[in-house]
Amino acid sequence: MKNFIAVLGILIFSFGKVSAHSARYDNVNTKQWYLQKQHAVIDATFYFSRNDSAFFEKADGAVIGLPIADLTSSDQKFVNTKIVEIERINQKIKQTNLRNTTSQNSTSQFNLIEVGLIILGGLIFLVLAKTNKRLFVPVAGALVLVSFIGFKSGNIGKRATTTSPTFMDSAFSYYKPTINTRWDNTYFYVESKGIADHEMMIGITSWQQQVPIPQCYVGANAWSIPLNPVIATTPVPVNNKHFLRGAVAVAVNGIAIFNPYTNTGVDAFLDGQLDNFGGHSGRADDYHYHIAPTVLYNKIPKTSPIAFALDGFAIYGSLEPDGSAMKTLDANHGHYGSNGAYHYHSSSSAPYMIGNMVGKVTEDSTLQIIPQAAAKGVRPALTPLKGATITHCYPYPTGDGYKLTYTVGSEKDTVDYSWTSAGKYTFKFIVNGSTTVNNYNGSKPCTVPVTSAINSLNKEIVLNIYPNPAIDIVNLSFSNEGQKTLVKQIALINSLGKVVYKTNIYVNKIDLNQFSSGIYFISVDVANQSITQKIIIH
């Protein structure tokens, strides 16, 4: 009897975990399908039928549709059998599937069945502890293990980390062709000269005597943002000890964002070192921000990222990506969004943007994130000028210099500087009526390449769907943004071939909360093409 109770307790806990609907969908082996007229053979997996057509997924992921009547009689029979099986499975899923939605601001969530089973298991555990001490250890271990799994399971769905490069590209698009973007399978690259289109340096009251000059963040020296960020086991704090050299993020105008603390360990904003837009020039005369440049929201939508951290996660302003008010922030100064991906938010007070690096990053011996683009100066760094307040920083109409004015008490002084295409830099200091000229040889100013993805609306249409698998929302975008104007219809189709959602206009996201977990297909009619892609809803 005692052993029976022990086994019963373990079975109850086991049943409580394995009876839940699994969110895992493995690829099945392909089958050879025969067409009776063309005598062709197709290796693919059948998924659903719609309007007398069968849809198959090939080994490379491509989804194709064929009239069922074109198949041989044996394959038609196979398809009809599969349709009946899928209907039976889907009906069962509808009856048993309980969607487990996780709150954005909570770290764990349990359903009432799990809690009840844990309480029941605890009672069984107490009985066994008194009646059979030999079963104490194994049953206690089983109880702890199952409880641990239950407590962790509610948080898994909110850890999606893959970032769509086309989503990132659209965020930076507002500043093209001043900047350029490109990507591979690992990084999203941002190329720029590091010069803002807003007036720089105005409002600085603690000036280091550095001024903005163009940098060459192109080619191998471009900014690199991970496309597949990984959540760190222990987030590294962005404070006066870590990341004091180099950038921690890149704004969507191609300008780097540094730690709020300078390399001397002081808060740059509170110390008066930043201009009205949160930036200043460093020892290499490289302009960069130390807090989030919210001025960019004068040009970009307030629901678009203002920057991307070098751990791969987006940084937003005071609104969520869906336009709602900013939700409660965690200790890292961010949270998981409705799409399951983590993002940061900016604020007007410390930590301003990133409290801790949520994603894994690599630091070099100087505690600088790598890979990191490098600025290159042309003159020695000067010492701080006590009491100086910058009033203007006018660009030359020819684009090859600036005139910076500042005051020290009642005195008004100027730094007039310029450069040539050969890399010769001239700095003219006018202080209290006296002029000093310094000349330097530096690198030749570079040109930001232009590799626009929008060459023609008639080029190959590439539809990007992310995240996949999806939880609450699936996003849609085109590698050629202009092609979205050619969309005729977007439909979400279940595995029975039934259209469960349809719109005749382009939308960049679909709310999935109303649909059960399972395999679906998104079909998009654009221009003269019809594109179908598989998606899994958890």
Overall description:
The chain is of the alpha+beta class and 538 residues long. Among the domains are: 2-21 and 100-158, no CATH class; 165-384, no CATH class; 463-537, Immunoglobulin-like. The protein contains 5 helices and 31 strands. The strands form 9 sheets. A 6-stranded mixed sheet has the order 10-9-13-14-16-15, with helices on one face. Strand 27 (487-494) and strand 28 (499-503) form a beta hairpin. Helix 1 (2-18) packs antiparallel against helix 3 (112-131) and helix 1 packs parallel to helix 4 (136-153). The radius of gyration is 30 Å and the shape is elongated. It starts with a helix and ends with a strand. Mean pLDDT is 80; it is low at 1-28, 96-112, 143-160 and 452-458.
